């Protein structure tokens, strides 16, 4: 880091990188103003307004209250963002699609009804499958089936014009035939998405702009580009599903009979052009989207997904982004990324990279207990009894998707925004929040949307809600954590990412529904072996990459190798481009085995894959090591270590190091450049000098701890970093324990006198209590040289005073404090202040949202057991 940037942080000067949701549910001006002031008090200078309920969005009532928010923010030198619809997910256009005059903007989809028959069937007929009056049959095709594989083979017979009086007249020869009736889908199949915009229509997407963005501008144009920062799209979707967010939402794969697929009037022409077919042939072959048609399905599915994801990019993302640029504001947001849905339709966007092309930051989210600190290799429970979350995606792919998009998209300027904490529940205390934030910081995320400030309390919907109307005793330290995040984001705000290699975003084989290796397998193997990488889509490989000196160059990024998860089939054009890059010196490595074919299984691709290597997943790290080496060497390596490097403009290298495990990491890092090493602890906001020996710079990280290191940064005025803890001993104390209930700003009252640090939940029956706990004690000290005090079994947080001198704040479960020079050679006074959040008090088994607080343990009041000193 440049020393100037570090000085900014040390002096609490930094940019603005946090913009939490502020949920509005009909509250009055006084309540809203108080909440905005609370956000400002936490060191946050922006907020993102989300409407939650009511029919007032873009009404006179809304203009009044939103205008008040803008004026309040202006008076506090804050900025305001707005979620760009009346409710989540984005796309209802303020619920205007219900109106008949807007029917032309509603989505259209296709579905299929298959029938198997045995020929010969001369002069026969089929009763047309049942369909509603809102459904129209657009094609009927008969395919011969292979009686071993079940696949359809050969050219289909077109029966579209053979329908008369609800009969389909057929005259089929010998064999097993599958007849497909392709029809428009009844909007009733889509649930809430029946009245959403369609990403396949530019006019439909423009309708959202007309109903929301233009109306906001008409009322508040003077704020645009100053107090009003921009718009946020939240989880827009193709919506070709039943509108229910079920446990199988992420399994919306191509090639499944029960699916409906997005469609529009001009899709025959678009799809035919992309598939290099006539319109007539395209319509006959449409069943290959749903069912396996040999030598047709892979190419047609890729062509179809290319068309619809390209339309999302151009009609939705880029159109809104351009509108925002034209009006002086930014456009940000995120789609559903969860466990592969970033490549699928339904609740997904079909292609993560294309879907966000018009936004000014790459966007992701982590909510609903999708990540549990300390669980990195196995599935874990979710909010649904029928589903577990796959740790691999959230631990190894999610953050990389966001960072990669930001790195390769010049107008995003390396900005990544992550919505975080949503519906994790009150049991997500400050230590867990910090651990989650640390993960994303150590993967390059540099903006955050904490979810959410809610003004409904008690009975908060989808906690945590941070301030909770002043009833969260941890809120002061929540502000400390926000400052911590701002500091690290400030250091991440410029520089060029230092990657070792790139990994293929394998959307095409996923769309083909052919055999392929999951992307998460590869990202996990590389991360746990100490490689840093970006994920690149085929668009980037085709259009925005060159090879120089054996490295793949994209924007300002440089990659020493390109790794592709195994895929049975890949588009021929992609194989040809990869062969071209390999001929120029790029190492192209497939996991497991090389592709067997392209769009047509019978086409010989041997000439295109001769330059590629294939290695097993077990051999992958060693193969990458040989192919391109690594920019940063850490010995001994720990699979729990995460790092993210930036080459800064001043000639230094900045690295974020984070321990995602449950044990201490104690290792050595070989500096990537000459010069001094400075270690920065962003929680303490202190910088230290680090020595470099023959083994490199020693790095010691406690479990879930993050540190920042600058290589090539000289500063001899700093104190040396202390790696080893002193010899600790028990400090036998008895405490007067005082309490102050949440919301009470008065005096503490005595709860227990002359007591050990006991389990207050049991000893005092505090099963529904929320407040602060103060532990006061005295002891005689004959050796005041101790430098460290530790609470091994703390709750979420603790603050310490010794002899009236503040020693700082620490987050649990182990709280440590620097007490150098604080002790006296006589009687000493100690005061420890701890704070609950509302996890005990704000719970109601009849409230649906309370499931969110049941997936993590309720943290103890105060602390238990002995404290240590040394």
Low-confidence stretches: none
Taking the alpha carbons of the first and last residues, their distance comes to 33 Å
Q: Strand order, biggest sheet?
A: 11-9-3-2-1-17
**What structural category characterises the helix and strand content?**
alpha+beta
The major sheet is characterized as:
6 strands, parallel
Proportion of strand residues: 25-35%
Based on CA atoms alone, the radius of gyration comes out at 30 Å
Q: Considering DSSP H and I runs of 4 or more, what fraction of the residues is helical?
A: 10-25%
- Overall strand count: 45
Summarize the structure.
By secondary structure, the protein is an alpha+beta fold. It has 18 helices and 45 strands.
Description:
The two termini are about 35 Å apart. α5 crosses α7, α9 (about 390-410) crosses α13 and α10 runs parallel beside α11 (about 475-490). The chain has 18 helices and 45 strands. The radius of gyration is 30 Å and the shape is globular. A 6-stranded parallel sheet has the order 11-9-3-2-1-17. Strands 4, 5, 6, 7, 8 and 10 form a 6-stranded antiparallel sheet that branches. With about 850 residues, the chain is an alpha+beta fold. The protein is about 25% helix and about 30% strand.
Topology:
Blueprint: H1 3-10, E1 21-24, H2 29-41, E2 46-51, H3 60-75, E3 79-83, E4 108-127, E5 137-145, E6 152-158, E7 163-164, E8 167-184, H4 202-220, E9 228-234, E10 261-263, H5 267-275, H6 279-285, H7 297-326, E11 330-334, H8 352-355, E12 362-366, E13 380-381, E14 388-389, H9 391-408, E15 416-420, H10 430-441, E16 447-450, E17 453-454, H11 475-491, E18 496-497, E19 501-504, H12 507-512, H13 519-527, E20 533-536, H14 538-543, E21 545-548, E22 551-554, E23 557-559, E24 561-564, H15 572-583, E25 587-591, H16 606-609, E26 613-615, H17 620-628, E27 633-635, E28 641-647, E29 653-659, E30 665-670, E31 677-681, E32 686-690, E33 692-693, E34 696-701, E35 706-711, E36 729-731, E37 735-741, E38 749-755, H18 760-763, E39 771-780, E40 788-791, E41 797-802, E42 805-811, E43 815-818, E44 827-835, E45 867-869
Parallel strand pairs: 1-2, 1-17, 2-3, 3-9, 9-11, 12-15, 15-16, 19-20, 19-24, 24-25, 25-26
Antiparallel strand pairs: 4-8, 4-10, 5-6, 5-8, 7-8, 13-14, 18-28, 21-22, 22-23, 27-30, 28-29, 29-35, 30-34, 31-32, 31-35, 33-34, 36-45, 37-38, 37-39, 39-44, 40-43, 40-45, 41-42, 41-44
Helix pairs in contact: 2-3, 4-7, 5-6, 5-7, 9-13, 10-11
């Amino acid at each position: 880091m440049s020393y100037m940037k570090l000085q900014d942080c040390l002096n609490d000067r930094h940019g603005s990188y946090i913009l939490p949701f502020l949920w509005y549910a009909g509250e009055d001006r006084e309540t809203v103003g108080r909440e905005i002031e609370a956000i400002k008090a936490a060191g946050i200078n922006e907020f993102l307004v989300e409407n939650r309920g009511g029919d007032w969005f873009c009404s006179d009532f809304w203009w009044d209250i939103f205008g008040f928010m803008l004026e309040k923010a202006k008076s506090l030198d804050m900025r305001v963002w707005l979620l760009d619809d009346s409710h989540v997910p984005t796309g209802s256009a303020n619920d205007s699609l219900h109106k008949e005059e807007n029917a032309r903007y509603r989505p259209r989809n296709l579905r299929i009804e298959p029938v198997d028959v045995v020929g010969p069937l001369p002069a026969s007929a089929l009763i047309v499958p049942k369909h509603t009056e809102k459904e129209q049959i657009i094609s009927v095709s008969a395919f011969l089936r292979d009686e071993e594989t079940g696949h359809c083979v050969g050219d289909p017979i077109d029966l579209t014009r053979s329908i008369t009086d609800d009969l389909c007249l057929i005259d089929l020869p010998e064999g097993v035939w599958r007849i497909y009736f392709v029809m428009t889908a009844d909007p009733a199949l889509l649930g809430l998405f029946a009245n959403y915009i369609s990403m396949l229509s530019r006019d439909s997407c423009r309708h959202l702009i007309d109903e929301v963005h233009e109306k906001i501008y008409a009322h508040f144009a003077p704020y645009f580009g100053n107090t009003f920062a921009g718009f946020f799209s939240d989880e827009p979707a193709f919506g070709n599903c039943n509108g229910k967010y079920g446990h199988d939402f992420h399994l919306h794969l191509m090639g499944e009979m029960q699916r409906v697929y997005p469609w529009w009037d001009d899709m025959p022409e678009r799809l035919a052009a992309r598939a290099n077919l006539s319109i007539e042939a395209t319509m006959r072959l449409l069943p290959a989207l749903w069912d396996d048609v040999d030598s047709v399905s892979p190419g047609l599915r890729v062509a179809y997904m290319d068309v619809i994801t390209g339309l999302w990019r151009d009609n939705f993302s880029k159109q809104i982004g351009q509108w925002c640029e034209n009006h002086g504001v930014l456009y940000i947001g995120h789609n559903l990324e969860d466990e592969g849905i970033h490549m699928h339709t339904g609740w997904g966007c079909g292609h993560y990279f294309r879907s966000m092309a018009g936004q000014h930051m790459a966007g992701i989210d982590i909510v609903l207990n999708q990540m549990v600190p300390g669980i990195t290799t196995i599935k874990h429970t979710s909010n649904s009894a029928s589903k577990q979350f796959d740790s691999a995606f959230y631990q190894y792919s999610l953050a990389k998707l966001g960072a990669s998009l930001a790195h390769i998209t010049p107008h995003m300027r390396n900005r990544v925004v992550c919505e975080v904490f949503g519906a994790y529940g009150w049991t997500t205390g400050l230590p867990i929040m910090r651990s989650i934030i640390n993960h994303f910081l150590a993967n390059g995320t540099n903006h955050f949307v904490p979810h959410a400030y809610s003004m409904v309390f008690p009975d908060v919907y989808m906690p945590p809600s941070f301030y909770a109307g002043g009833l969260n005793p941890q809120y002061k330290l929540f502000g400390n954590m926000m400052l911590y995040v701002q500091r690290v984001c400030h250091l991440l705000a410029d520089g060029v990412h230092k990657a070792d290699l790139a990994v293929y975003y394998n959307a095409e084989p996923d769309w083909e529904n052919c055999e392929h290796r999951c992307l998460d397998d590869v990202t996990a193997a590389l991360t746990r072996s100490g490689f840093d990488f970006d994920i690149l889509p085929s668009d980037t490989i085709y259009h925005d990459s060159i090879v120089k000196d054996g490295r793949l160059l994209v924007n300002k990024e440089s990659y020493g190798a390109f790794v592709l998860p195994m895929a049975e089939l890949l588009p021929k054009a992609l194989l040809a481009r990869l062969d071209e890059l390999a001929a120029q010196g790029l190492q192209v490595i497939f996991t497991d085995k090389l592709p067997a074919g392209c769009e047509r299984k019978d086409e010989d691709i041997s000439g295109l894959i001769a330059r590629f290597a294939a290695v097993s997943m077990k051999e992958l790290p060693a193969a990458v090591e040989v192919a391109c080496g690594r920019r940063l060497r850490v010995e001994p390596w720990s699979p729990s270590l995460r790092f993210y490097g930036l080459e800064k403009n001043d000639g230094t290298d900045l690295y974020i190091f984070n321990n995602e495990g449950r044990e201490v990491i104690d290792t050595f890092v070989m500096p990537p450049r000459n010069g001094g090493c400075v270690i920065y602890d962003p929680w303490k906001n202190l910088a230290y000098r680090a020595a470099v020996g023959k083994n490199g710079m020693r790095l010691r990280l406690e479990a879930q701890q993050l540190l920042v290191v600058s290589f090539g940064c000289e500063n001899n005025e700093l104190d040396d970093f202390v790696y080893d803890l002193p010899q600790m001993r028990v400090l036998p104390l008895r405490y007067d324990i005082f309490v102050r209930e949440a919301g009470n700003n008065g005096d503490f009252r005595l709860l227990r006198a002359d007591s050990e640090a006991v389990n207050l939940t049991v000893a005092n029956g505090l099963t529904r209590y929320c407040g602060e706990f103060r532990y006061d004690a005295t002891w005689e000290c004959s050796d005041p040289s101790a430098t460290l005090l530790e609470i091994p079994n703390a709750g979420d947080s603790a603050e310490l005073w010794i002899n009236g001198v503040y020693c700082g704040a620490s987050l649990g479960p182990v709280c440590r404090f620097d007490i150098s020079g604080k002790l006296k050679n006589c009687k000493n006074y100690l005061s420890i202040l701890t704070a609950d959040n509302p996890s005990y008090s704000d719970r109601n088994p009849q409230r649906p949202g309370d499931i969110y607080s049941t997936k993590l343990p309720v943290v103890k009041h105060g602390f238990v057991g002995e404290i240590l000193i040394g």
